[in-house]
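Hi all, posting the design record for the shared folder.

TITLE: backbone redesign
STEP: 1 of 1
STRUCTURE INPUT:
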């Protein structure tokens, strides 16, 4: 018998496309349409309803990029549509140019009272229309969001900035009418889609595949193409037997969780995300009315907060479903943040702010951390997750690795302090599944724990731009619940999945250290102004909370709870994984920079007022030090008269310029390059013979795929050393060297000097940057033989190899660090600190006749074209320090020194007799001092062990207290004072390596 399977498959596909799909709606009827175009930014329903509407015809164009048009739709459902097995609907096509939801026009439908009905999007384009004979009266807020996604990779788009997006209409209203849904035909289409998808994934030789093919062929025979409605039941009967065959006993199990990954900003501004939340959540509520088994998981407290603020009626409906256990808040964070770049306290506050909102507003505490799309995961996260009271972690993004596949899908993830969190990585490799046969088969095929575990999680629902699950997806889940050849799919929740998975596989393998994403390495550098704004905001918040706490407790001031909470929410929002990493449209980053400027004004005001209250009356200059380390005689976390620091000596010689003091001698040649950096105490040269440091290098930066996201290793093939200097001279104050370089269309000014106290070489960089698709790095070759480098992460540091022995090592050719990196041999090291940079590459290189040296290169700037063609253009500023003869403790101190400059005010010289908080162990660092979140006035102190070694010390305070408790990050008392004993002198601490400890001090009147 000849093989005609291809012909049969073609017959089935054409019959479905040309006969079944057009018959899903039996009849259509026109509606009256009027429109009103909003002149600028979106307006609330109440304002839109009052406006004058004018007639609008299907086929007409509408929508300038980023504009909003309100359509008023009226009519009557034909009374003769009262037919069994049918349902009237309003069908809308706003002019979609691709099928994927979330990246183009969308709409929100309201009833005349302003109640949201549901959203209109590609692949979800219907509204309920009521019974036959009833009136239709709908207001549709249509968002003309341009298709920015259509210019991915090297495309240049002006659409990401409303000012440059143009005024021409970008959409045409194709369809807006009443239609009568034939339920039986729709069900038949779902049967066919499920079976055809399953069949395509089965081996050609498997009898089950042929069985499905023959059943689908019989379905085509059974359905009359001239009377699809009348014969659809016969078509379904032809498929009933193959749909009823149960799954194999060994079939993989999938816990399907309704979800809508919704980026808080990306290829749209934050204001559009607010509307996307309403659209997505209203779609979910509409589905819940239809399917009692459907549950939905949504992360990001920020998005729920927007709903409460802008759509209170919808928020109350969501809240009711949360109480019913069907609408499930997950994640526990304020947003799905990046985890490489936020500082330690900011990472903690993601959970503090997020969980507080969920508990106070919705009465639930999420126990799983939900970060499917962030660009790699810090090794500090397991401890932070656990300290926040959470138990489980989920991600998906590691499936994007370029080089190495993660060996596990269910595992224990161990962080830098040894804390482990039960982790799952769904093998379906997407957070937006449509429950297709292809994706189900992929999940089963790729699941790494076969023979040990049996279940994985399947997040389903359109994502990135929102949209969420559809009725078609729920139909697919119902059909694959127990279907031969397919994994078993059951509608579930994250908690149900994690509880069963952990019970089944409690001895899962362990992955230790960071979950490094071998992709999107450019996000450590893109949009430098956004990154500087984040770093500056984090440290201003530290200062504001510290000094406001001291002013409140010591001087009786009022703690600015509301202002600080508002600022924290702004900063936490902008740590979202497409804002802080620099991968959003221009509009998003312009807004972020404005927000950071406002944050700085607010926090500087709080700091100024607080230190004035602490300083008191007087004419003495009082210096305030917010660092956990003493500076120039000013004790840590306190204030006193500053002792002057010794200035370095600068001389000009035949070999260039020499900066020197008792600890270090730095020689800068006539090109502004460092040719010698002598540690006088150790008697050791730090710059390898023949090498130069402070070397700027410019590389071509044209990644293969994601422009703003990626740095490809091939960038190294085209580097140019920038050694030409326009001018170089001793600074006017005589304490440093200033030089100017020009290259391409850019100009750079550097000032170098020695810090009078630490001896570190400080480098201040100002760049007027106007390059395109270039990567600028600053290189420091060091005469240190280091097989690994330390990089600061939240509450500690990680070691990464400087070699490329394995493919895992080689893939880490660009890495992230916070305030410092350190390379060293036993007894000698070098620390390089920064005030705004995050991207590094640190590798060994051969030195002829002298073994190897270690080269530390800091990534300063990029110039991506997509999604923001003006990314990084204009004035940029950086500051670095290089400290020779440094250990890890020195690196930690340098990081705080550069990021927390001393402050001064006039007042009484003895205004503070003792530091507000101090610890006498250099390894125990005070990260935050604040008043308690519950506004009782208790003082909260967060500390961590910074050196990676067990550390003991005494914590003392400059304020009185009557009780101290150890708490979790949410300031809930925990029964774990094994790390602390209390006596009259203070609190004696013993912390394990990198341990985070939060202490809560209650005092008289507090």
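Okay, here is what came back for every position:
SEQUENCE:
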């Amino acid at each position: 018998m000849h093989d005609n399977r291809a012909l049969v498959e073609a017959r089935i596909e054409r019959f479905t496309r040309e006969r079944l799909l057009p018959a899903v709606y039996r009849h259509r009827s026109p509606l009256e349409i009027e429109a009103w175009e909003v002149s600028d930014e979106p307006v609330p329903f109440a304002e839109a309803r009052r406006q004058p509407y004018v007639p609008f015809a299907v086929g007409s164009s509408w929508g300038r990029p980023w504009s909003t048009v309100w359509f008023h739709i009226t009519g009557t459902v034909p009374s003769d549509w009262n037919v069994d097995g049918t349902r009237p609907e309003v069908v809308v096509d706003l002019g979609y140019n691709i099928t994927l939801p979330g990246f183009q026009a969308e709409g929100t439908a309201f009833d005349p009272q302003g109640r949201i009905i549901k959203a209109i999007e590609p692949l979800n384009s219907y509204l309920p229309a009521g019974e036959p004979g009833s009136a239709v009266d709908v207001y549709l807020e249509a968002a003309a969001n341009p298709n920015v996604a259509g210019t991915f990779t090297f495309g240049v788009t002006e659409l990401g900035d409303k000012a440059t997006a143009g005024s021409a209409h970008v959409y045409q209203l194709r369809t807006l009418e009443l239609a009568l849904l034939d339920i039986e035909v729709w069900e038949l289409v779902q049967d066919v889609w499920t079976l055809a998808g399953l069949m395509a994934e089965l081996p050609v030789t498997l009898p089950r595949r042929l069985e499905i093919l023959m059943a689908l062929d019989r379905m085509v025979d059974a359905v009359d193409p001239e009377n699809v409605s009348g014969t659809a039941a016969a078509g379904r009967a032809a498929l009933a037997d193959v749909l009823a065959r149960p799954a194999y006993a060994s079939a993989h199990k999938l816990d399907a969780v309704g979800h809508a990954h919704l980026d808080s900003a990306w290829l749209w501004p934050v204001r559009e995300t607010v509307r996307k939340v309403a659209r997505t959540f209203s779609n979910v509520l509409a589905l819940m009315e239809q399917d009692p088994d459907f549950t939905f998981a949504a992360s990001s407290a920020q998005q729920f907060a927007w709903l409460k603020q802008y759509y209170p009626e919808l928020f109350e409906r969501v809240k009711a479903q949360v109480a019913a256990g069907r609408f499930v808040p997950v994640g526990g964070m304020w947003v799905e943040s990046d985890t490489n770049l936020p500082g330690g306290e900011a990472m903690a506050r993601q959970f503090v702010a997020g969980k507080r909102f969920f508990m106070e507003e919705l009465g639930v505490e999420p126990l799983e951390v939900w970060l499917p799309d962030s660009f790699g995961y810090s090794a500090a996260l397991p401890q932070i997750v656990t300290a926040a009271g959470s138990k489980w972690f989920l991600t998906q993004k590691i499936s994007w690795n370029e080089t190495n596949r993660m060996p596990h899908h269910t595992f224990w993830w161990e962080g830098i302090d040894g804390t482990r969190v039960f982790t799952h990585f769904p093998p379906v490799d997407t957070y937006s599944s449509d429950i297709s046969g292809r994706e189900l088969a992929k999940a089963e095929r790729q699941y790494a724990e076969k023979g040990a575990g049996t279940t994985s999680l399947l997040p389903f629902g359109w994502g990135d731009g929102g949209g969420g699950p559809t009725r078609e997806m729920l139909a697919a889940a119902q059909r694959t619940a127990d279907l031969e050849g397919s994994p078993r799919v059951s509608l579930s929740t994250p908690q149900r999945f994690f509880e069963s998975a952990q019970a089944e596989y409690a001895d899962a393998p362990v992955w230790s250290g960071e979950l490094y994403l071998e992709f999107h390495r450019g996000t450590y550098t893109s949009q430098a102004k956004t990154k500087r704004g984040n770093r500056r905001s984090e440290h201003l918040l530290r200062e504001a909370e510290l000094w406001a706490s001291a002013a409140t407790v010591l001087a009786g001031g009022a703690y600015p709870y509301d202002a600080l909470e508002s600022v924290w929410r702004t900063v936490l929002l902008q740590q979202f994984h497409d804002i802080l990493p620099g991968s959003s449209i221009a509009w998003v980053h312009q807004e972020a920079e404005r927000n950071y400027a406002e944050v700085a004004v607010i926090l500087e005001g709080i700091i100024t007022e607080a230190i004035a209250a602490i300083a008191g009356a007087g004419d003495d200059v009082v210096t305030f030090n917010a660092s956990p380390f003493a500076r120039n005689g000013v004790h840590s976390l306190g204030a006193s008269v500053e002792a002057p620091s010794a200035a370095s000596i600068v001389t000009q010689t035949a070999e260039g310029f020499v900066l020197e003091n008792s600890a270090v001698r730095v020689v800068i040649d006539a090109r502004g390059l460092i040719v010698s950096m002598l540690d006088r105490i150790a008697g050791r040269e730090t710059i390898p013979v023949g090498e130069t440091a402070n070397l700027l290098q410019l590389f071509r930066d044209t990644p293969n795929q994601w422009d703003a996201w990626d740095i490809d290793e091939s960038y190294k093939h085209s580097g140019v050393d920038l050694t030409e200097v326009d001018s170089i001279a001793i600074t006017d104050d005589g304490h440093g060297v200033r030089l100017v370089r020009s290259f391409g269309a850019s100009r750079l000014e550097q000032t170098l000097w020695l810090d009078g106290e630490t001896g570190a070489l400080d480098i201040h960089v100002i760049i007027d940057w106007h390059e395109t698709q270039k990567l600028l790095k600053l290189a420091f070759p060091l005469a240190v033989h280091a097989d690994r480098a330390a990089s600061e992460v939240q509450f500690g540091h990680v070691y990464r190899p400087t070699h490329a022995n394995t493919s895992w090592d080689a893939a880490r050719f660009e890495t992230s660090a916070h305030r410092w990196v350190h390379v060293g041999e036993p007894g000698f090291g070098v620390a390089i600190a920064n005030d705004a940079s995050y991207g590094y590459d640190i590798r060994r290189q051969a030195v002829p006749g002298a073994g190897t040296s270690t080269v530390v290169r800091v990534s300063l700037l990029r110039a991506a074209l997509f999604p923001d063609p003006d990314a990084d253009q204009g004035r940029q500023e950086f500051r670095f320090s290089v400290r020779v003869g440094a250990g890890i403790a020195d690196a930690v101190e340098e990081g705080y020194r550069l990021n927390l400059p001393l402050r001064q005010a006039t007042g009484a010289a003895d205004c503070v007799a003792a530091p507000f908080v101090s610890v006498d162990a250099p390894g125990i660092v005070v990260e935050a001092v604040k008043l308690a979140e519950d506004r009782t006035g208790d003082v909260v102190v967060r500390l961590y062990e910074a050196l990676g070694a067990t550390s003991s010390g005494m914590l003392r305070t400059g304020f009185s207290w009557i009780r101290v408790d150890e708490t979790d990050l949410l300031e809930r008392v925990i029964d774990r004072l094994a790390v602390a004993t209390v006596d009259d002198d203070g609190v004696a601490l013993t912390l394990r390596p990198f341990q985070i400890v939060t202490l809560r001090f209650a005092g008289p009147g507090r």
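COMMENT: The mean pLDDT is 95.
Let me know if anyone wants the other runs.
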